[in-house]
């Protein structure tokens, strides 16, 4: 019996890296994408192979829809060559960048950049990936606690993540005939290099968020990856169209 395969975008660092490794620990092979840091992606591949699963890394700018057809062609061709089938089972839409700018100062170019990677890219990469996904697979979209909690400076990022949460429910409804489940994982503030490491490295921000969180600390990538991996298992089959916040009880 062939192993199932997950595609994780932005899998070279942070939450994506942790999710890719956690998925591999469930006995699932992993394809991950990276934007610029091939060395970091190769390190994740090596870690997954050390677990005993297969892994491959592909370069992809998920904000550039024009690249998607060639990426899917390359991906499915490689899978066909290496596994005997072009198909895979799970898609984790994780890749993204931060934007911390007050509402009154946001430029059109800044908005377009966030839209392209956090909404348009998610929409069309999923659209192009689904024909190659096995029936009974799953899509996991990574959102944010900022769709529920409003923080000054995050109006654009939070708004587009909210749009992805709505899109998730539409996907779940329309892909249900193929038994493809679609869910959202919404992390609270996490200590990664996301946004220049702001949550991790700014002691005042870190302490403020920890004080708002009922479990008393800021989240870590290890707090998120296992939840994403769980949604790729049969144990999560009856979870569909849901937003799962993983925040330690932030701002309850």
Summarize the structure.
The protein contains eight helices and seven strands; from the N terminus they run βαβαβαβαβαβαααβ. The protein has 252 residues and is α/β, with parallel strands linked by helices.
How would you describe this protein?
The termini are far apart. The protein is an alpha/beta fold. The longest helix has 22 residues, at 108-129. The protein is globular and about 50 Å long. It has helices spanning 14-24, 38-51, 68-83, 108-129, 155-175, 198-201, 203-212, 222-230, and strands at 5-8, 29-34, 55-59, 88-93, 133-142, 181-187, 243-246. It has one domain (5-246): NAD(P)-binding Rossmann-like Domain (Rossmann fold, 3-Layer(aba) Sandwich). Helix 1 (14-24) packs parallel to helix 2 (38-51).
């Amino acid at each position: 019996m062939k192993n199932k395969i997950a595609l994780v975008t932005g899998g070279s660092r942070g939450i994506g890296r942790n999710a890719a490794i956690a998925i591999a620990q469930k006995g699932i092979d992993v394809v991950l994408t990276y934007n610029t840091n091939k060395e970091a992606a190769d390190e994740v591949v090596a870690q997954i192979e050390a677990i005993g699963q297969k892994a491959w890394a592909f370069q992809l700018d998920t904000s550039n829809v024009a690249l998607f057809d060639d990426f899917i062609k390359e991906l499915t061709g490689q899978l066909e060559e290496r596994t005997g089938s072009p198909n895979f089972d799970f898609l984790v839409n994780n890749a993204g960048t931060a934007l911390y700018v007050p509402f009154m100062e946001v430029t059109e170019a800044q908005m377009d950049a966030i839209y392209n990677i956090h909404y348009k890219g998610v929409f069309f990469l999923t659209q192009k990936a689904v024909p190659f996904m096995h029936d009974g697979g799953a899509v996991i979209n990574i959102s944010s606690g900022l769709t529920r909690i409003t923080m000054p400076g995050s109006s654009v990022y939070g708004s587009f993540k909210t749009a992805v949460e709505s899109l998730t429910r539409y996907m779940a409804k329309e892909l249900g005939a193929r038994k493809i489940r679609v869910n959202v994982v919404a992390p609270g503030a996490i200590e990664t290099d996301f946004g220049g490491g702001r949550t991790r490295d700014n002691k005042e921000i870190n302490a403020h968020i920890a004080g708002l969180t009922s479990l008393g600390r800021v989240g870590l990538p290890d707090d998120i990856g296992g939840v994403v991996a769980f949604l790729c298992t049969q144990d999560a089959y009856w979870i569909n169209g849901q937003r799962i916040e993983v925040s330690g009880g932030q701002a309850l």
